Automatic annotation (TrEMBL), chain A:
This is ABC transporter ATP-binding protein. PROSITE patterns: ABC_TRANSPORTER_1 (PS00211), ABC_TRANSPORTER_2 (PS50893). It comes from the Bacteria. Belongs to the ABC transporter superfamily. The lineage of its organism: Bacteria, Pseudomonadati, Pseudomonadota, Alphaproteobacteria, Hyphomicrobiales.
From TrEMBL, chain B:
This is Branched-chain amino acid ABC transporter permease. One of its GO terms (molecular function) is branched-chain amino acid transmembrane transporter activity. The chain crosses the membrane at residues 30-51, 82-101, 113-129, 158-179, 209-227, 247-271, 283-306. It is found in: Cell membrane. Pfam families: BPD_transp_2.
């Protein structure tokens, strides 16, 4: 069986900067696959290539067995791919609840004609979506904030809101870009539990994260990037004992 | 931008009642004529606000779609002898077709290409209306037959006002339901963050095209009704200054607000009339008032008033703002 997400030798350059160079990995449903590496290593660029925000200049992106290398982001989302953003991209003027309702866009049907005619199905669909979105807000400790304008929420709340929004369309693959950044230790602990639970539900989680304790605790497999290239890969134990990794990355970041 | 649909629909019913009572309270042809113009400008603005206030796209040529509707009705009724309702629908189809082709061509590109394309389109329409004298009467304009429905002829300012009022109520009702649907939420998401919207599976070009076509049709319908209400059309109605006025109306009233579209359209239609007594200073005073509104209410009149209303409400509640957030803005309904 083909892996759920298969990245094959992707390369991206920005002018003279080789942001990604021959990076490959694949992952499966229910696994937590983490990508680590110093700032500028190309982690976010890799997410942009997977989600379709940037085109891959070399290599292939295969999602659920289909070659999506040149497909737009919306087509990749339709195959069950979702992501969060390192620099939050919430819908700031909409309420928290509406953010999550937009998240369920692909799970709803209403098109322009029925929305214009105001058919009864339109309001019914919104009500159903509103219920599901409320449940997701509860799950992410945002109960009671549904009516708040998302742009006015606290940073940690906005981060959780982005994950809730990404889950609203029941993704099969979830890319999380530094979800623990800016969270305190107890919030990070909650996040670890949430990520484990998502993997338990069968979602393939791909995690980019600087918090080594979190990464080592929850990952099934790790990929270490340095200057756009693979430096090492393996289980947390294998990677943390790899001399190249200790020298290039862990030695600097972890004391 | 509230998602409290039932409350908005009640407001729509109140608006309908007020519009119905107006001719009884103020049975004066001059007032009715002004009210007709305000209603039609509001219809254009509601459509334009869906495009600009929700999806975040600027149009500098919406008066041209108004002109397409107005001249389609004028020419088809006066020169071809087609019945007004069919002429209005033909105007809608032409406007929708033009908008669709423009959007498809331009929306693939990022940036403000739609603003530039609409600007160019407006200029072209103006030139055509002024030059094609045989068809349009040129700069002098042309007169338009009365509106009639299934052979029942309507007469006087009453009929024009009635049509405009009905169009406004329908436009408001349509916009409220639309904005609170999946499609409306997708458009607002696009306005807030295109990357995130696209990542959630929203086909951005398709949605922008759709809302641009809708906004063009709103303007076209308003133009058709205007032609019959005024019994006369001239190129000035389709000109660049009118397009800018429509943009000013939604900015003053409030981007992303259906009620704001009506307030802005009404204010900018009435203001020059209210200030008529000041003669030479009229334009200066109009400009001054608009500048003051933008300084003190940068979000537009309706959103600013709603926000301060909410703030007042909070101050007199024991649980303050977050408690309001829980119960206030979104209700199941
Ligand atoms: N849009 C872009 N334009 C130009 N350079 C970019 C762009 N995005 C990323 N880069 C460059 O690519 C490299 C990798 O960046 P990034 O993927 O953001 O790293 P990371 O997420 O691992 O910190 C950096 O040198 C960065 O400056
Ligand atoms: Mg990054």
């Amino acid at each position: 069986m083909a892996p759920l997400l298969d990245i094959h030798a992707v390369g991206v350059s920005f002018g003279g900067v080789r942001a990604l160079d021959g990076v490959s990995f694949s992952t499966e449903a229910g696994r937590i696959f983490s990508i680590i590496g110093p700032n500028g290593a190309g982690k976010t660029t890799l997410f942009n290539v997977i989600s379709g925000a940037y085109p891959a200049q070399q290599g292939k992106v295969v999602i659920a067995g289909r070659d999506m290398t040149t497909a737009p982001p919306s087509a990749r989302a339709a195959l069950g791919l979702q992501r969060t953003f390192q620099n939050l991209q919430i819908f700031g003027t909409m309420t928290a609840l509406e953010n999550v309702m937009v998240g369920g866009h692909l799970r709803q049907r209403t098109g322009f004609p029925s929305a214009l005619l105001g058919l009864p199905s339109v309001a019914a669909e919104s009500r159903a979506m509103r219920r599901r979105a409320t449940e997701l807000l509860d799950l992410f400790d945002l109960a009671g904030l549904g009516g708040a304008v998302a742009g006015e929420l606290a940073y940690g709340q906005q981060k959780r809101l982005e994950i809730a929004r990404a889950l609203a369309c029941e993704p099969r693959i979830l890319l999380l870009d530094e979800p623990a950044a800016g969270l305190n230790p107890s919030e990070t602990e909650d996040l670890a539990n949430v990520i484990r639970r998502l993997a338990g539900m069968g979602i393939a989680v791909v995690l980019v994260e600087h918090d080594m304790r979190l990464v080592m605790a929850i990952s099934d497999e790790l990929l270490v990037l340095n200057f756009g290239r693979e430096l090492a890969r393996g289980t947390p134990a294998e990677v943390s004992s790899n001399p190249a990794v200790i020298e290039a990355y862990l030695g600097v970041e972890v004391d | 931008m509230t998602s409290d649909t039932p409350r908005q629909l009640i407001a729509c019913a109140v608006l309908a009642t007020a519009l119905a009572l107006l001719p009884i309270v103020a049975p004066n042809p001059y007032y009715l004529d002004l009210a007709t113009k305000a209603c039609l400008a509001a219809v254009v603005c509601i459509g334009l606000n869906l495009l600009s206030g929700y999806a975040g796209q600027l149009s500098l040529g919406h008066a041209a779609f108004f002109g397409v509707g107005a001249y389609a009705s004028a020419i088809l009724c006066a020169k071809v002898g087609i019945t007004p309702v069919v002429a209005m629908l033909a105007g809608c189809l032409i406007s929708a077709g033009i908008a669709y082709v423009m959007a498809r061509t331009v929306l693939r590109l990022k940036g403000h290409y739609l603003a530039m394309a609409t600007l160019a389109f407006g200029v072209i329409i103006s030139i055509v209306l002024n030059r094609e004298v045989a068809l349009t009467g040129g700069p002098d304009g042309m007169s338009v037959p009365r509106f009639n429905l299934f052979g029942y002829r309507t007469t006087g300012v009453w009929a024009g006002y009635g049509l405009a009022a009905v169009a406004l109520v329908l436009a408001v009702r349509t916009a409220i339901v639309f904005v609170n649907s999946r499609v409306g939420r997708a458009l607002r998401a696009i306005g807030d963050s295109e990357v995130a919207a696209e990542g959630l599976g929203i086909d951005i070009a398709r949605y922008k095209t759709g809302v641009f076509v809708i906004s063009a049709v709103f303007a076209s319908v308003a133009g058709s009704i205007f032609a019959h209400a005024d019994r006369f059309v001239s190129p000035a109605e389709a000109g660049f200054m009118r397009s800018v006025e429509f943009v000013a109306m939604i900015v003053i009233g409030g981007l992303g607000s259906v009620a704001g579209s009506i307030v802005g359209a009404t204010l900018l239609t009435l203001l020059p009339q209210l200030l008529a007594g000041f003669d030479h200073y009229r334009h200066f005073l109009t400009g001054l008032i608009l500048i003051l509104i933008m300084i003190f209410m940068p979000a537009g009149i309706v959103p600013t008033l709603l926000a301060s209303g909410r703030a007042l409400h909070d101050r007199y509640r024991p649980f303050g703002r977050s408690a309001r957030s829980v119960t206030g803005r979104t209700s199941e309904g």
